[in-house]
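hi! just following up on the protien thing from before. the input was this:
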Amino acid sequence: MITRRRFLESAAVAATLAHMESRSMMALSQKAVAKDDVLQWVDPRIGTGGHGHCYPGASMPFGAVQLSPDTYNDGWDWSSGYHITDDSIMGFSHTHLSGTGVGDLLDFLVMPGTGKAKLVPGDRKNPEEGYRSRFTHSTEVTTPGYYSVMLDTYKIKAELTATERVGVHRYTFPKSDEAYLIVDLHHAHLTKRGTTVVSSEVELAGDTLQGGHVTNGWGNGRHAYFSMQFSKKPKKVEIFSDDQPVSGKKTEGVNLKAVLYFETKANETILVKTGISAVDTAGAAKNVAAEVKGFDFDGTRMMAAAAWRKQLGKVRASFIDDTHRTIFYTSLYHMSLGPVLFDDVDGRYRAMDNTVKTLPNGERNYTTFSLWDTFRGAHPAYTIIEPERVPQFVNTLIRMGEESPAGAPVWPLWGRETECMTGFHCSSVIAEAQKKGFNADYKRAYAMLQKGRADDVQGMTWHKEHGYIPADLEGESVSKHVEFCYDDWAMANIASRLGMTAERDERLKMSKGYLNNWDASMGFLRPKLSNGEWTTPFDPIEMRHWEKWWDYTESNAWQTTFTVQCDPGGMIKMIGGNAPFVTKLDALFNQPSTLPSYAPPDIAGMVGQYAHGNEPSHHIAYLYVYAGAPHKTQSRVRSLIDTMYKAEPDGMQGNEDVGQMSAWYFLSALGFYPVDPVSGIYVLGSPVTTGATLDMGKGRVLKIEVQRSNASDCYVKEFRLNGTAQDKAWFRHSDIAKGGTLTFVMSATPNESLGTDVKVIPPSQEI
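and the predicted 3d structure came back as:
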């Protein structure tokens, strides 16, 4: 099982550009924006610095195309191909990952230029050696669905927009007898082995340039194809293999590039429209024909903006602080960048067994499921604001598991299983959708999940037969075991609703296996050897007890001890009851933030030993509610909202991870969060919105009312659910499934009676 830490580079970027440039260009892009236009509150630069790994380019909500600049294609902090600290651009490629901890994609780079065409990108320190161009961030404009920048080396203005499956470029050239566009099929995200491209093909078919490549990167054996059309006929087209010209209009190889030469007048524009497909060039061409009829860049941009207004307009939220509003709507924007569409307009898609299949009528197919991250907050948020997509996501995951030789999906990317991270958290996404009443074939889903757990992967056999995973036989044993316990809880829920009582009871029993890693003498979940003994030496800030492998996944004993999401009540009992648990949880936040020297940089956003920059910590601040101390959750959550996010490029305390880092903020700003998504329970936190309405589809509306005297009021004095005063600090999805109203009355001082009685603590392991 691969974890993201194995891809980390030793050198990380230490500085980011001043926020002044980002906000000034946002102002430029907002000159004609209506006062109530939600687009003005999105800043795509957030997360493009630090370790956020976000890209600033153009896409559609959940669209297949992410057309964005690449400033570098190697190294951890360039997992999305872009970092705010760079001052030169390689070109513009059509696929990007949003905030992942591993790099891939960057398919089919296009770069305009003037003068003698160069076939290599050149070095960042000396961009003039290749086709790179210098640029300044002051000329960048980025809003949802649109990106532009001035390429200073060539005096060319580049503009990008997109439909779901087509990227559209507009380049404004100076007068030149030597204008050109280079299309680089060899460009991809690199690994320590170098290029990931193993084969390519390119063909000039009439006025269309088409082709594709296969890459062996994170998604090993990934297929990508394109069909590219131009608004102006080039005076000459050359195809290069290994940077040498070749004859003929069709070429196969590894290092392939095409150069299209033009003569341009001053301020002449050349447009490029590129359809992409994982199936073949014919599919890519159909996508272009269906989605972009002509070369109307401004019309395409307007359609993209309209799609984003509709998407972001599903939530209308107000804030006292405009910084909170910007972070909130940018979070919703980031949450809407993935999973991404993965089918052609004719319904064909590349399955996980590398065959081409056709979807049933009405279905859509997706990819880029960062499940280890997004099951925690992003997918629960989708059950509120994406009711049409939730069944599509579930059906996609079922198909993936049935079609994949690996079984249940773990981290699927473009028809490939990356095997990244621990557990099989598609089970949580499926069980949560079932709990919340979304239609899908859950009997088929359960069979798929059983298939995915049949083989001895990640120590599964030991987990099932012995109730723990030995640290001397399997790396990251404690984390894997706890994650499996959550998957068992999810499967128990599915089995129960299918009337499979024996399977339900078996899974429930297995979900309690976390207790076998509890060392009461130390007060932590601890690695255990195959002979039943504890590993030594033991230090709760360490992540391993020997050099061979780690015992915890991107975490240590402090963080992992609080990750029993399948049974918060059982975890509290394990630690000694409510009072000892609260003391222990306080200690987590009050420890020194010391980490081992080998700790990965995505364990960030430290508050004591709590790590907000890494997803296993995301629910922890909400656990006080399960111990009858919700006011402590409210105080802590408000502190995290204010300190862990900024409206700046370096505005995230860790990787965005395809929407999860943003989902925590989005839900927390509204006032609630799911500790255990499968349960369908939301736990109250501390809303920073002053009021919001969420469109839940089919005429259903969730209204959030917040009353406060001062912006700093962080405690919930009173909570009303659908008009009725509550003595509990939580609610069920079923309470709002048809729409509803949440009312928060906030105070500067805690209400230490709300949610404290044992009778009103959220239930644990309730099916």
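The radius of gyration is 26 Å.
Residues 5-32 have pLDDT under 50 and may be disordered.
cheers
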